[in-house]
Amino acid sequence: MNHANGSAVAGSSSGSGDDLAPRRNSKRPKYSRFTQQELPACKPILTPKWVISVFTLIGVIFVPIGVAALLASNNVVEIVDQYDDKCVPPNMTNDKVAYIQNATFDKTCIRTLQVLKNMSQPIYVYYQLDNFYQNHRRYVKSRNDEQLRKASQANETSGCDPERTANGAPIVPCGLIAWSLFNDTYKFSLDNKNLTVNKKGISWKSDRDHKFGKDVYPKNFQNSSVIGGAKLDPKIPLSEQEDLIVWMRTAALPTFRKLYGKIEQDLKEGDSIIVTLENNYNTYSFSGKKKLVLSTSSWLGGKNDFLGIAYLAIGGLCFFLAVAFTVIYLVKPRKLGDPSYLSWNRNPAGN
Amino acid sequence: MARRGKKKNGLRWSKIYSFACIRPNEVLEDEQASSLGGPGYSRIVHCNQSHLHRQKPLKYPSNYISTTKYNVITFLPKAIFEQFRRVANLYFLLAAGLSLTPISPFSPFSMIAPLAFVVGLSMIKEAVEDWRRFMQDVEVNGRNVSVHKGEGQFEYKQWQKICVGDVVKVEKDQFFPADLLLLSSSFEDGICYVETMNLDGETNLKVKRSLEVTQALEDDASFKDFTATIRCEDPNPNLYTFVGNFEYERQVYALEPNHILLRDSKLRNTTYVYGVIIFTGHDSKVMQNATKSPAKRSRIEKKMDKVIYVLFTILVLISVISSIGFAVITKTKMPNWWYLQPKNDAGLYDPSKPVASGLAHLVTALILYGYLIPISLYVSIEVVKVSQALFINRDVLMYDEETEKPAHARTSNLNEELGQVDTILSDKTGTLTCNQMDFLKCSIAGVPYGVRSSEVEIATEKQMASEASVSEIESAHGTTDIVDRPQKPAIKGFSFEDDRLLHGNWVREPTAGIIRLFFRTLALCHTAIPEPNEETGGFTYEAESPDEGAFLVAAREFGFEFCRRQQSSVFIKEKYSPSGDPVEREFKLLSLLEFNSKRKRMSVIVRDEESGKILLLCKGADSIIFERLSKDGRMYLNETKQHLNEYGESGLRTLALAYKVLDESEYSAWDTEFQRAKTNIGPDREALVEHISDNMEKELILVGATAVEDKLQKGVPQCIDKLAQAGLKIWVLTGDKIETAINIGYACSLLRQGMTQIRLSIENDDLLAQDVNKAAKENILMKLTNASQMIKLEKDPHAAFALIIDGKTLTYALEDDIKNHFLSIAVECASVICCRVSPRQKAMVTRLVKEGTGKVTLAIGDGANDVGMIQEADIGIGISGVEGMQAVMASDFSISQFRFLERLLVVHGHWCYKRIALMICYFFYKNIAFGLTIFYFEAFTGFSGQSVYDDWYMLLFNVVLTSLPVISLGVFEQDVSSEVCLQFPALYQQGAKNLFFDWYRIIGWMFNGLYTSIVIFFLSIGIFYNRIFRAGGQTADMAAVGTTIFTCIIWAVNLQIALIMSHFTWIQHFFVWGSIVSWYLFLVAYGSSSPTLSGNSYKILGEALGPAPIYWLSTLVVAAACNIPYLVHISYQRVSHPLDHHVLQEIKYYRKDVEDENMWKREKVRARQRTKIGLTARVEAKFRQFAGRLSKKEKVPSSPSLSSSTNIQNPQ
Q1: For residue range B405-427, what is the model confidence (pLDDT) as tens digits?
Q2: Is residue B874 scored above 50 in pLDDT?
Q3: Among A296, A314, A333, residue at a domain's last position
């Protein structure tokens, strides 16, 4: 900076630029609509027309669906019978747990169900458990799918804690889920005739075919000191033990129903069904309810008013919003693209 | 060019100059010698014996340089360390580590894979960037230079191979490979010209000179037996100091900075030099100076971090709730849950140890709810920013044809910051101006010549014309095409147009004699040397400043071609001599009175060899010249003053010219005195010389004045106008003199008539040293108080203030006790110009603005002197048009022209800001919506840490299923098109005011996420609770419920983003709808994979959910319910409180801008921020003047040196 006698080329020194001429524009970005961010685009904006028609459209679609869903739900006939308390002998009601845990007591229990509406077959039989945390992490994890699939993997019991081995041998099927298999049984009779309960096909086909092996037989099951739930017939392969397959599909919520079987016979209004049940399963420890459910189904599944109501509510809300916006647009019209709404026009003092 | 081998052109520069160069090489004095060898001064260099430096103890580092951040070995540890400095990443690392333990709710793979992906991607980016740096280093290290290998032979060696003590020969236009001691050059007196643009940003050449004793080493052979020893300072970063001595032939000589050639500067106009290497590689001063550019983060990202902390808080909160819940349930209820075998090896679920279980569960919960923290946010932002940067790089409208340089986003971290700038701090030379002077006008003998207008005048006229006619439609591309001049000046440095003077017509003017004198002054009064240009046959001039060059070109065009300089004579080819034929006239150069910043003038005393007359020709600042006029020399004073005022207002640099006739005796009497003074060795030599020069330059006769246009870069006034309309404040920080800075202020319309200029400068430097500080401070404080008083009392809404401050004053103003006071005034002023500021002060001013106002600052500059400011500002922009790359290397963005700043900020900045802001908000929304559903589910599982979703769903949620739409939002969203952005710069304020990323909005989005999570979870659960969901009687298990909820989430968040977007190209459509489709595709693929992998999700869609109408119906109702509130919100907002871009979108949608052009045009005018600077403001002020012409007159400030003189010298 201190060099007072510096000198700079101020005259024309154009010569140096010439040799660059041939490779001119080499660095010029290539034009394309993409790189220039000029791709054709639709730029929808929410005009009143759009807003009102969107809300109306949702309403128009949702309300009929809601109505249809409610109708379907209404057609479903459901019989629910809670039997956990009723099936304990009156002298044992003070200590239900002792009753259920004592194998010497007779657990047979007779219940009568009244059919209030015609039920057309198939009638699904469910058991419903309450307050049973099938979704508890300790429980959910306690299984081994490999072992269930292949006979060769019988020793594969990892993850099955604390129900892996008994008497030094691996348990098949291992894990808490299988160990705690539901073991109440139901027999139905109508007018002294047995109602056969079809227990085939109550599980997913894919489960039977691919997840529970045809050559895998229960081994060493329920042989440990504490017996959990049902025992399995060691001669029947797992793929045919459908109660187990259904049970192994752990439920998402602590209240759940599981399919027990199907009654493939219509029931008439006024029929009364005698249920002979074996009340074996201990829900008394954790004060869980046990219910027996008979239900028909519709295209929507079982009884489900919630869905219909949700649809009606939201459809209705949208109709209301469509009206509300119409009113707003009428009462307080704003011409679209009206420049007087621009900030510089609204507060001319500048902002 | 071809000047090689034509050694010596016979000129000894040291003899032309009057006094500046006469400094004999003195043999070292004792006290200087004593400091050498001490600490900090221990370096010994054995010249020409580099083998001594290849081993200890004198082994110095090699000349290999490395600017990379990593090397092969350090890359992994260092880069990984960098990655895990981000809190979120560290959290995920911990989570991944814990996922290997049984307390993790997820499989290790689902934790580690996303983290590895995210971190890996960032690391690849780092690696690529570092590789580029490495390649750059390889290129530099591999350059060749000619090195003495012994026996007088030179050979080429790579830069990295050379060593301290080597003698190198550097040829013209080559860079110096290391810091050298100059030994000799192709010039006889051992001088050479050096371009230091890479070091300090100055474009003018510097002269370096060798010691006289080494000047004799003038060819290769003479180095055969050359030995010498240098003792000097240790490596340090001071560019302008050097302490050392040189032992040669048993004599010791002192070395000065002037003997040293620094690495990264370039040899110019000198065929070759020999030098010996002193500092190599990282020891060299420029490398010592290199500071690591600070890592900058945008405000949005910093705020985002805060939001992430908020999310962490929420995370911890719900985790604590979970673990307390878990502990309580484990303690009280779990003993009864026999199916869990609580007594048997319960581990984490031990009812007897609820506290321990609870604590372990806290960790589980922290991992489980980790989906609240968007792991992919960082990586998505990186991807988006890199794509945005690509768009910036590829923008054709920011490509400069002349320099062939496109815009370049060197870091992509700050894209969105571009949309929030509040203050622009700009360098002047090279940024606003081209550093090219064009001779434009002159006033001779009171007559103004030159019809062409300056750029600012042309621009003003255009603007006025367009204001006046409503029908005129401005081009959509803003500034680029307005600026073209009618015709480009054919001659660089000369855009004068007036037939009265050109083509010899001046001879017929009534004042031809004075005109001739005027031109001769231009041709004679300078220190340039001519260089024949073989291509054109004419001359190019090596002048020390561009305006001097412009004068010479002008003189040539007028017919006075300066063609030869000898030791004591100047030759001029006069085309229009009285005889009619071109003649070459010789003028004997008797004396030359140098320019310096204090004198502000230079004079030559010449004898016309033909007539024998002795003339003193003087040019200088008008104020200086005017006070030195003789009584009868003031003939044209008033007219000239008036012209100078006009020139000054149109931003031209002006100089006044004067002369005086001397008689022989008068001159010789003065000369003896002058010579005596010059040879006087003593402290007062310079004062004496000055005093005597001063005596001579008196009683002058005014000839006229020149007006040179400091050419602005293309489109600068229009760009500044647009930026001002966008509400940006513009500060100019320049190293130039106050007068020059003011000229440019006018030229850029940062200053105009009717503005009150507040000038802060300290004149009196004669005070005693200890009083100076205090007095100066008090002085400034008083001025500041006055100014703030004045601003407060100003009632006129149109009043505008400009603050002009010089470097010396700034040193005080930047001191802690005054700086806030200073800043508060500066902020009030419409424009701020700081002159004569050092690079350091530039950085300090930038910091003051940044920290004082808390707003986003942008610094733009082209030279190394701007590096500090560029690094200090929130955003640094380098001008890449010129050769020096220092500023660009330090910058965050580089553009080749100032005018591209408009598009960069108003279009790209605006877009990027909105994109990133929307994107981050959406990210928070989406992760809250998803993450909280996991929490709700916990309440149903006894807080056991079980997730309702399959691990794979969770894994894919952030990485695949919802990432592409949000990236497309971040990359492609446009609220309005680029044309509208440019037409309505006021839209820019949306970013500057941060409308889209304030806490109100962020929290709004979080609540939207909360709402969505509640709706999704509870609606789905309500639908599936305890119910038969298939006609076949099956009930839903956890996999079915989880998949349904997840489907609802995918729909809800993707519909949400579709509602956010206002610009759908096929890409957005593809990504948004494609994400939804890909979810189903995934389900199909996952369901058909081996059941070992998919578990309960095996065939979930095909067998279980697909045939169930309830699955599809629940998706529909949940997705609708989630988005209705947002839809209502935006619909209502548009009805009642539309934002500017909403209205503009509507105008465009209905094509109202085409149908009602007047309205569109009118709005464009109205949309302008009420600016006080820029062309528009200038024009408006003019209109007001025309219209009103009220009593405003007295408010127009008396700006005394409005038409100030220009330098013929660079700032010292």
Answers
A1: 888 888 778 888 999 999 999 98
A2: yes
A3: A296
Q: Is the same domain home to A247 and A314? A: no
Looking at the annotation, which residues of B are catalytic? 427
The answer to whether residue B797 neighbours chain A at the CB level (below 8 Å) is no
Cross-chain residue pair B552–A10, CB shorter than 8 Å: yes
Domain count of the fold of chain A = 2
d(CA B24, CA B256) in angstroms, rounded, equals 12
Q: How far apart are alpha carbons B1146 and B1132 in whole angstroms?
A: 15
Look at strands B875-879 and B856-861 and give their pairing: parallel
Q: Report the relative pairing of strands B421-426 and B191-195 from DSSP bridges.
A: unpaired
Burial A124-152 (b: 16+ CB within 10 A, else e): bbbbbbbebbbbbbbbbbbbbbbbbbeee
For residue A213, is it within any domain?
yes
pLDDT in tens, B930-972: 999 999 999 899 888 888 898 888 888 887 888 899 999 999 9
**Same domain, yes or no: A147 and A213:** yes
Q: How is A259-279 classified by DSSP, letter by letter?
A: EEEEE-S-B-TT-EEEEEEE-
Last-in-domain residue among A296, A316, A331 = A296
Residues facing A197 on adjacent strands: A263
Dist. CA B1097–CA B1089, nearest whole Å: 10
Looking at residue B40, the DSSP 8-state letter turns out to be: T
Q: Which two structure tokens, joined as six digits, stand for B885?
A: 């790359």
- Give me the sign of the Cα torsion angle B1110, B1115, B1117, B1121: positive
Do residues A123 and A158 both lie within one domain?
Answer: yes
Q: Distance of CA B1126 to CAs B592, B756, B925, B998, B1058, Å?
A: 80, 50, 12, 18, 12
- What residues of chain A lie within 8 A of the CB of B492, using their CB? 11-12, 14
Same domain, A66 and A142: no
User: Is A25 inside any structural domain?
Assistant: no
Give the total residue count for chain A.
351
Q: Find residues 529-568 of chain B whose CB sits inside 8 Å of chain A.
A: 529, 531, 533, 535-536, 539-546, 548-550, 552-553
pLDDT tens digits, residue range B989-1023?
888 888 899 999 999 999 999 999 999 999 999 99
* Residue B283 known to bind ligand: no
**In chain A, which residue ranges form alpha helices assigned H by DSSP?**
15-18, 48-75, 96-101, 137-140, 145-149, 176-179, 205-206, 242-248, 305-331, 343-346
The distance of Cα B530 from the centroid of its chain, to the nearest Å, equals: 36
Same structural domain, A218 and A193: yes
The ipTM of this complex is: 0.91
B528 close to A (CB below 8 A)? yes
Residues A212 and A327 reside in one and the same domain: no
In the numeric block, which tokens belong to residue B948? 């309702």
Query: Is the backbone of residue B1091 left (phi > 0), alpha (psi -120 to 50) or beta?
Result: alpha
Instruction: Please give the pLDDT value at position B1192.
Output: 45
**β-sheet bridge partners, residue A96:** none
Domain span including residue A321:
44-76+303-345
Let me know: does A102 contact A125? Beta carbons within 8 Å.
no
Phi, psi torsion values for B574, nearest 5 degrees: -100, 120
Give residue B737's identity as a one-letter amino acid code.
K
Q: Measured on CA atoms in the order B421, B427, B430, B433, is the torsion positive or negative?
A: positive
State CA B891 to chain mean position distance.
Answer: 5
DSSP string, B660-712: EEE-HHHHHHHHHHHHHHHH--STTHHHHHHHHHHHHS-SBEEEEEEEEEEEE
A3 lies in some domain: no
| Contacts by residues B463-466 (CB-CB < 8 Å, ≥ 24 positions apart) | B463/B721, B463/B1175, B463/B1176, B463/B1178, B463/B1179, B464/B1179, B464/B1182, B464/B1183
Residue A109 lies in a domain: yes
Same domain, A320 and A204: no
For residue A20, is pLDDT > 50?
Answer: no
Q: How far is A97 from chain B (nearest CA, A)?
A: 10
pLDDT reported for residue B1169 = 58
Do A235 and A91 belong together in one domain? Answer: yes
